Amino acid sequence: MKNSYLLYSMSVIVSRALPDVRDGLKPVQRRLLFAMRELGLTAGGKFTKCVGVVGETMKRFHPHGDAALYGTLVRMAQDFSLRYPLVDGQGNFGNVDGDPPAAMRYTECRFSALALEMLRDIQKNTVNWGPNFNQEEQEPLVLPAGIPNLLVNGGSGIAVGMATNLPPHNLSETIDAVIMAIDNPQATVAELMTKLPGPDFPTAALILGSKGIRQAYETGRGSIVMQAKTQIEPMDGGKHAIVVTELPYQVNKARLIEQIADLVKAKKIDGITALNDYTDKHGMRIVIELKREAHPQRVLNFLLKHTPLRSTFGALMMALVDNTPKVLSLPQIIHYYVKHRQEIVRRRTQYDLDKAKERAHIVEGLLKALDVIDEIIAIIRRSRTVEVARNDMMAQFAFSQIQATHILEMQLQRLTGLEREKLQAEYKELIQQIAFLEGILADPAKVLGIIKDELRDLKRRFGDARRSRIVPVEADQIGDEDMIPDEEMIVTITRNGYIKRVAADTYRVQRRGGRGVIAAASKEEDEISQLFVATTHHYILFFTDRGRVYRLKAYEVPLGSRQAMGTAVINLISIEPGDTITASVPVRALDQEGYLVMATRKGEVKRSRLSEFQNLRNNGLRAFDLEEDDRLCWVHLTTGRDEVLMASRLGQAIRFPETELRAAGRGSGGVRGMSIDAGDEVVGMEISRPGADLLVVGENGYGKRTAIDAYTAHHRGGKGVIAMRVTDKTGTIADMKVVDDEDRLLIITAGGIVIRVPVNEIRRIGRATEGVRVINLEPGDRVVSIERVKKAEPSDVPSNGGPNHALAAMMNSNQDEEMIADAEDVDEAAEEVSEE
Question: Which domains does the chain have, with CATH numbers?
């Protein structure tokens, strides 16, 4: 019993379940590929029925069940199972839903282009051969393996008392790592991971962190956490949907949908209303529709925790080394592969050298025979048999038997002078080839150089981009925020307290004077009051007109469509009844250096340290002690050394240094920043920048910009100077911003229209002027606010992305402007005629 079981277990381990470290193939895979070569199924050639390949393999090399053989063949053809399929299949070979392939009598196959590299030069005595199961034929015991297949395609298998599970990798990255190991045999795992950062699964998706990857590469065992690629998309009626576009490796899509449905039926998760699979030839798309009141991110986090949307790949890098199973580290796998390729190149070179020497010996004899051709002819004429002639030639001229045989077989045309020249040229070329091949065999460095050159050529021909994105966060450190992409968003708030965020590329660039696009379907008597740019990971500090402050993460603001009104702020933060949010400040962190400068409608200002707002309660805190009839409307983040600009509705503006404001406590009141006449009020407070302009826009759509230097610096508390000549044509000033020439503006109206305008299209003119038209308004509409989107500069973009980064890059592009320029020129001309 013991002996029999040991024999059985070793047979399973060596002959069935575990791949060889050299070519990364199990015996059944190797035999299938060799049988396909014997059938002549080259890449780009004819297809043949899979049943023929299975039958040929079973008849000649692998006397086991046809179902196992066909299953192996199918897997080598599935682009969702192998990162680089070795078989090019035609027909139904199954799918990620777990549906079985069609019967082998219906499907067809041939080599993939990459599979040919696994067998290249096999005819040149590069590998060892052994008898097949019935001792009638020879089969290769390993393939030449031009590609590092064990790493590139990975593999799995269950033997007796052991198993293997190797993840697939990107071909280009793997080749770079192998070349690094060739150049530096002592390269550490950390150094190799600069070239090969981790697995690259055929189904793409995300890999969370590098801890498990490094552990697997160092010890041969590790847990690699994979996660589906998801995004939250808005739907009609204020609802949202979770869309899955990539799944973790080896996750069955149909089974996943069933599991989610089971969770809903068991009422373990609330908020899902529908599950739809829209996967087609263009890609995967699973849509999980949610209720209007459901929080999309919380639902997604629950699904990640309780379904295979987040899965673990248990890496166990075991392979056969000299027919002995071993758990291998990444450097060891690369070492054994390079060692195998060294043997292949040496044996191939020796084969070519032997052939070259054999041919040189024959050509040498032919050239010698041409010099004594008359004597040779005489010997042939007087000899009774070929054997006698050959022996006489060998005795008289010292020819070898091979040379004498070829001389006797030589055609008469070889006696011409041209043929002599050809033989001499061939002999010279053969001598050079022999010297070159002997040089390779004598220098191991040349062998390694050939291996590197061949790998680089493979990378050039077959290399592709990485599919799986490695997220720099470990699975055991994942919180809700870590699962949310750090992306730029545009956040809008209406006067009635509705808030939403949309993707930064929602609004296209238009020329000055364009009509804009709908930013929100405004409810009756409601209008958009605020619009700003922030990333999903920013904090947003909300300030109310009564001087209280609240805090929210940007990703907690529901994502909406461009036309959607948004969600009531009261559903997100515990705002006091009757309060209205009038100012919002996005900040990356609350413990950073800086100050918050606040201003009211009556012209009062106050400065407090940002750190004063770190510990905010859910019901908010008092930020400004206001007078009864005053309202807090503007808050800006400053460095502590900036200048403050304030403008009034009737066209006055004042500039004074921030240092004139003492750092006050969070709950204190303010001081006079600008004196206001009766019937006037402040419409904006900004922070000055050197070399910038002050841009003001009237309610009727006219605006202008003036250099800030034109506004003489005063002490706080004064009335300031004229900023814009207010007339019936311009209307009173609606808003003001400090801008640079390369900036863009987002202008929003009471009717919910938004237009993006390049600042350089708005004329720079003097202070006491009316300005130019910047937006054409519909009758009854008016400008309510403007927002600056700054240019992208290296100093503006933190390492993890910052507000305005992607948006600014997009908005600095003139492509959209050029595409719509002609149509807008016509519109502008028509409007000018209409006005006249």
Answer: 12-145 (3.90.199.10), 229-308 (3.30.1360.40), 339-462 (1.10.268.10), 485-791+804-835 (2.120.10.90)
